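Customer escalation, tier 2.

The customer says the design service returned an amino acid string that "doesn't look like it belongs to this structure." They asked us to rerun it and document both sides in this ticket. The original structure tokens are below, unchanged.
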């Protein structure tokens, strides 16, 4: 009878479980918002940046009726414009030479063939963007030296491009 007069203070199992679920949801969102912010995010940003720049360069070539090109190195790329039958480095700030962040490398395939980078003649682009809207069929792979995550941008002769993510095992 004595226990009827005293209220037991404490938490029920249900209350403790609800609090644990709320804490785990908050921690999950915090982790996702912070993300790894590192290598994977930088790799994705670089691949998207290149895809956007290539699309803009292709549109510029069509609108200005000029031939443009891109020269690749393992750790960067340069845009060129054909002027008086000579390839000149683009003077446009948007199409300035770009360096990839440390650790990110690129591979180039033209018409299905692997191209050895950094052994090419300077001022000679490997990828052509023609004023007709056509371009050299290509595949550019952006990857980390030590990671299995890759992004590849594939372009067809008709000017269509697609960016894809994949992991190698």
């Amino acid at each position: 009878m004595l226990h009827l007069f005293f209220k037991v203070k404490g938490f029920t199992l249900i209350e403790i479980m609800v609090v644990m679920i709320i804490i785990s949801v908050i921690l999950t969102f915090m982790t996702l918002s912070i993300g790894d912010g590192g290598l994977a995010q930088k790799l994705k940003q670089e691949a998207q940046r290149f895809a956007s720049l290539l699309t803009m360069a292709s549109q510029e070539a069509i609108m200005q009726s000029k031939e443009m090109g891109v020269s690749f190195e393992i750790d960067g790329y340069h845009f060129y414009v054909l002027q008086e039958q000579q390839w000149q480095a683009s003077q446009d700030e948007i199409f300035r030479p770009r360096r990839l962040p440390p650790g990110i490398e690129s591979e180039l395939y033209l018409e299905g063939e692997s191209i050895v980078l950094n052994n090419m003649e300077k001022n000679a682009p490997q990828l052509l963007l023609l004023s007709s809207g056509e371009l050299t069929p290509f595949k550019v792979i952006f990857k980390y030296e030590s990671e299995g995550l890759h992004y590849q941008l594939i372009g067809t002769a008709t000017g269509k491009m697609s960016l894809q993510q994949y992991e190698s095992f």
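Tier 2 assessment: The sequence is consistent with the input. The first helix runs from residue 2 to 5. Strands lie at 68-73, 76-83, 86-89, 98-99, 104-110, 113-115, 127-129, 138-144, 149-155, 161-167. Sent an explanation to the customer and offered a walkthrough call.
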